[in-house]
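Mods, move this if it's the wrong board.
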Amino acid sequence: MKSSLFLLLFFFSLSNSFAQNAEVSVGGDVGNPFKITKGNFASLKQITIKAKSKDGKEHEYSGVNLYDIITKAESIPGNILRGKSLTKYILVSATDGYQIVIALPEIDPDFTDNTIILANKMDGKDLPDDAGPFRIIVPLDKKQARSIMRVISIDVLTAEKP
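Not the wrong board. Structure tokens:
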């Protein structure tokens, strides 16, 4: 019983430590790789969107538009998505190894009205430790499988024919 309690406390402290010191690396095929931390996140332009969680309840999420993050990383030449740039995609990874893919036209306002964000707040409060400190929110997906929690990296990659 003591060993089970010790393991539980160990994993709780480990996840709590991650939540306090977390950062998201932004890289891949970009001209300006950078890191997002809890400290510099507030300096990025904040927006709020509404989206349903997997339990069907609507929540208000606050964070940064993924398009703004990719633009800051200089991933699209001249910020005009066309030609070879249309073969680029975003690979988002979480602490547990879970990964999702988002095609660049899914975030470009010239292609869509959908706004995908990297959130740090839900209903005005910091994301809970089991979901944050950073989470991608894809509001128009019918299933929330791409609303990935505990994000640690956002990489822009180029699809290549095998």
